[in-house]
Rhamnulokinase (Glycomyces lechevalierae), 481 residues
Amino acid sequence: MTLLAAVDLGASSGRVMAAHLREGRIELTETARFPNRAVTVRGRLYWDVLGLWAGILEGLRALDGPVSVGVDSWAVDYGLVGDDGHLVANPVCYRDARNAAAKTEILERVGAAELFAATGIQPQPFNTLFQFAAETTSARRALLIPDLIGYWLSGVPAWEATNASTTGLVDLATGDWSGALAERIGLDLGLLGPVTPTGTVLGPVLPEVAAATGLAASTQVIATASHDTAAAVAAVPYGTEHAAYISCGTWSLVGVERDTPITTPAALDAGFTNERGADGSIRFLRNVAGLWLLNESIATWRLQGHDIDLAGLLAEAARVERLRSVVDPDDARFADPGDMPERIRSYCAQTGQPVPGTPAEVAACVLDSLALAHRSAVEGLEALTGDGVEAIHVVGGGANNGLLCQLTADATGRAVLAGPDEATALGNALVQAQALGLIPPGPEARRAVARASARPRRYEPRGPQAPWGRAAARLQPARVA
Ligand code: LRH
């Protein structure tokens, strides 16, 4: 038996998982879970990265002699580090308002089609590229969040490839930073070091980390697939069907794995992006605003003094009439933190639909809308790749949301295979195990262990497709508006 540590940071919580590799399977146990949230100070939305660091140290302290540690997190965000190696500013959250203006300004200089063709990345306000353009603080280095934590653990700066691809600054053709693009937008590439291959062993933990956590001085820090979505996709337990994945958490990332990118105008218009996978593959996917809408709604109700329990809410939402009102979860009004139920109600009122009242009605509206958005993304995948999608693997926390999985099966007319819910931590650990030679290299050997480690639940589609098609059509004018 070998023990590996997977540090997995999400937009709403972070955790440290003990990954036990034994007889071709990985078993995960959580050693620490701590909240993560963005905090507003003087109109700027920050992450509390030092709070995360404290949670990580606590989780590592609870582990019994792991051979290695790997860190993954949400994409695109970074910490700025000065010449002395210290953080010079608190990392800003990708939902901060500064990025939209920077996007508009950059796109005036370099068109969306050119950016998409060069990097494969869908221009979205949160791409690191636009964040850099909005940056006001100067620094020596910019390290993406998992690389920042890896630097604090090992003292070695890295720019791991899967997460680097999400910046919008990596050249699709070379896999390295695009000097030409940086020059066009006036960005100093000196902030970034060479792109680090996924699975690079960075080196042992620093003595100060060993002292603070009790980890052995020989514990290796590994640049795992550090983009959480890349880690989750690395752990999808594909069977024999041609399947899409939905990495479902704060976001729903709906995609397929491919050998080659698609950078056609149609892919750009349909909102698809080409991110790097663990083996240099392409994760061709669309970002659908996922359980963020539900999580923010729950946070709002709790602030208002409602006693909300998720299981009870979902049970009630299951009994609400389906497709009564639907929203486009990717509408810009839902992007910022805040009173989501009120925004959902105003969207429904403006589009002439019944206005959801109770929390169960709002939750039903959100889940129907997400299932519909999943359907549209799967249709987009089929049209753009030319390959049929026979089944859908839902991985990540959303795999535990039985109602969303069932509705996704209903809306898409495809079987949904739900799980593992901890796909991100599993993928993180699997890539570490490959880096250490504990599992043979390549996606197939990794997937065999993923399959042995997970038992997905199957949801078959119920009922006719027509009501979903009609609801999608109902949304069409709202999207244009
Ligand atoms: C999901 C995720 C997603 C990114 C977003 C910023 O956690 O990493 O893949 O697009 O956060």
Observations:
- The first strand starts at residue 2 and ends at 9.
- The mean pLDDT is 96.
- Residues 107 and 115 are 9 Å apart (CA to CA).
